[in-house]
Amino acid sequence: MPSQLFCAAQAKHEPGLQAIEALAELCRTSLTSTAIRYAELTGESVAVVMSTGQQVDFCRMSETMKSKGHFDWIKRADPVPRNTATHRFQFGRT
Asked: Which DSSP string do the residues of 3-70 spell out, in sequence order?
């Protein structure tokens, strides 16, 4: 997904999961690889968290999110952080 073309297509969408889904369809790439590329290129605060059960497989944060400074890096095998969209999506409100 060349950055110049990806960013031009990304600019046509509001930030969020729907943009990632649309870009995955446009680029004919997996949702996971598109989400990672989105995090690499967006100016938004974004974290892509892949998990199995309650355990993190990996996390990719956008530069904007990393620059906020008050986020700890989410590591492999960490529990999915409770106050996150990932946790709510996977486990409901808790």
From this structure: HHHHHHHHTTS-SSHHHHHHHHHHHT--HHHHHHHHHHH-SS--EEEEEETTEEEEEEE-HHHHHT--
